[in-house]
Write a structure and sequence with these properties.
Elements lengths: L1 H10 L1 H7 L5 E3 L8 H9 L3 E5 L5 H14 L4 E6 L5 H10 L4 E5 L5 H9 L3 E5 L3 H9 L4 E5 L5 E2 L5 H8 L8 E4 L5 H9 L4 E4 L13 H9 L5 E3 L12 E4 L2 H18 L5 H10 L4 H6 L24 H17 L12
Parallel strand pairs: 1-2, 1-9, 2-3, 3-4, 4-5, 5-6, 6-8, 8-9
Antiparallel strand pairs: 7-11, 10-11
The structure holds flavin mononucleotide.
Length: 346
C-alpha cells in the first residue's frame, strides 16, 4: 500500500500543488448544486470544491463566497460563466474576496476576461474542448486547463473524454490539465493521471453527497438512473440549433422535442420569424435546472447528469465519496509494476 501511496502522490503532485489540496480531485461546479455546503464539504474532505456562480448577480456571489469561507479554511475555486452580462464585476468580486482560483466556463473566454481574472492574483482555469483551443488558451495566459468529454453532465461538447485525453495530454505540458466527464471511480482517475493528467474533475458523482442541498427527488432520480439514461438534448432541425446538454430523460425532455416541432411549424407557416422561433426554443429550459434541483420537480425540470450517474448508488457523505475514490486509486496502483510512467514527470 505504501508504494501505491507514493505512486499516487507522485502522479498527482502537480495537481495537488496547483490546487493546494490533499487530493487532485476537483468537484466540478454545478449550478444550484455547488453552493457553500457542498463546496466546503469537498474542500474540507481533501478535494477542491468549486462554487457555481451561474446567473447570480455580484452581490449574491460575494455573499456565497463569504459563507463558504466561513465553512472552510481550505482552498476552493469560483466558476464564472463567460456569457454572464456582469462578468467583469463578478471577476472583481472574486478579486476583492481573495478567491485563489477562478474557473471561466461556458464558451471560450475573451482574452480580456482572462487578463482581468489573472490581475486579481487568482490562478485562472479554462475549459479546452479541442487541442487547437487549448493552445490558444495557453497563449492567453491561462494557468490550467480542464478537458471535459461528452460523457459529462450539463453542457457538453461532441468528443469523448478518452479521445480528448489522448489528443491533449501528451501535447500540453506547460500547465496542469485536469480531466472531466464520465469519471466515477478511482481506477479511471489513475488511468488519466498515468496518461499525464494532473488531476480529475467530477460533478455527477457528488450530487448525492449528504451535504449537497439538491432536493431529495433530484437525488432519488440519480440513484435510480443507469448510464444510458443520461442522454444529450434532442435537436429536431439543424436550422434551429439546440445547445447540447446531457440530462436524464423525463417529461420535459419529451415535451422539448414536441415543442420544437410545433415552433418550427409556426415558422414554416410564416406565423413567426426565425429569430423568434429560435428564442422560443432556447427559452424552453429557462429556470429548468432550479425547478428540478431546488423545487424537486423532476418531471418538468432539467435533470442534468453525466453518464457516471450509473455509479451513483446511494446518498453518502462527501468525505466518504472522496475516500472511496482514493482507495480505488490506491488499489489500482497496487498491481502496477515497473518505473513510473514517463508522462508523469511534470
Ligand atoms: C447538474 C449539473 C450542473 C452543472 N453546472 C455547471 C456549471 O454551472 N458550470 C460548469 O462549468 N459546469 C457545470 N457542470 C459540469 C461540471 O462542473 C463537471 O465538469 C461535470 O459534471 C463533469 O462530468 P461528470 O458529470 O461526468 O462528472 C454541471 C454538471 C451537472 C451534472
Amino acid at each position: 500500500m505504501d508504494s501505491a501511496r507514493e505512486r499516487l502522490d507522485h502522479l498527482w503532485r502537480r495537481g495537488r500543488e496547483f490546487l493546494g489540496t490533499e487530493y487532485a480531485i476537483m468537484g466540478g461546479a454545478m449550478s444550484w448544486i455547488s453552493e457553500r455546503h457542498l463546496v466546503a464539504a469537498i474542500s474540507n474532505g481533501g478535494g477542491f470544491g468549486v462554487l457555481a456562480c451561474g446567473s447570480m448577480p455580484p452581490h449574491l456571489l460575494a455573499e456565497e463566497i463569504r459563507a463558504t469561507q466561513a465553512l472552510t479554511q481550505k482552498p476552493f475555486g469560483v466558476n464564472l460563466i463567460t456569457l454572464h452580462p456582469q462578468l467583469d464585476a463578478l471577476i472583481d468580486v472574486c478579486g476583492e474576496m481573495g478567491v485563489g482560483h477562478i474557473v471561466l466556463a461556458g464558451g471560450l473566454p475573451p482574452s480580456a476576461a482572462i487578463r482581468r481574472a489573472k490581475a486579481t492574483g487568482a490562478k485562472v482555469i479554462c475549459f479546452a474542448p479541442a487541442l487547437v483551443l487549448a493552445k490558444k488558451l495557453l497563449r492567453s495566459g491561462v494557468d490550467a486547463l480542464v478537458i471535459e468529454g461528452t460523457e459529462a453532465g450539463g453542457h457538453i461538447g461532441p468528443v469523448a473524454t478518452s479521445v480528448l485525453a489522448q489528443e491533449i495530454l501528451p501535447v500540453i505540458e506547460d500547465v496542469p490539465v485536469f480531466v472531466a466527464g464520465g469519471i466515477g471511480r478511482g481506477e479511471a482517475v489513475v488511468a488519466f493521471l498515468e496518461m499525464g493528467a494532473s488531476g480529475c474533475q467530477l460533478g455527477t458523482r457528488f450530487v448525492c453527497a449528504s451535504e449537497c442541498v439538491a432536493h431529495p427527488n433530484f437525488k432519488a432520480s440519480f440513484i435510480r438512473a443507469a448510464a444510458r439514461d443520461a442522454v444529450p438534448s434532442v435537436q429536431v432541425d439543424p436550422q434551429f440549433p439546440v445547445i447540447p446538454v446531457r440530462a436524464l430523460g423525463n417529461n420535459a425532455t419529451k415535451r422539448f422535442a414536441d415543442f420544437q416541432i410545433k415552433v418550427i411549424a409556426r415558422f414554416r407557416a410564416g406565423e413567426i420569424e426565425q429569430k423568434e422561433a429560435q428564442l422560443q426554443i432556447e427559452h424552453f429550459w429557462a429556470g429548468a435546472l432550479k425547478r428540478a434541483v431546488i423545487d424537486g420537480d423532476v418531471e418538468n425540470g432539467s435533470l442534468m447528469a453525466g453518464q457516471s450517474v450509473g455509479m451513483v448508488t446511494r446518498e453518502q457523505p462527501t468525505a466518504e465519496i472522496l475516500g472511496e475514490l482514493v482507495t480505488q486509486s490506491l488499489v489500482a496502483l497496487m498491481g502496477r509494476k515497473g518505473p513510473i510512467s514517463v508522462c508523469t514527470g511534470r
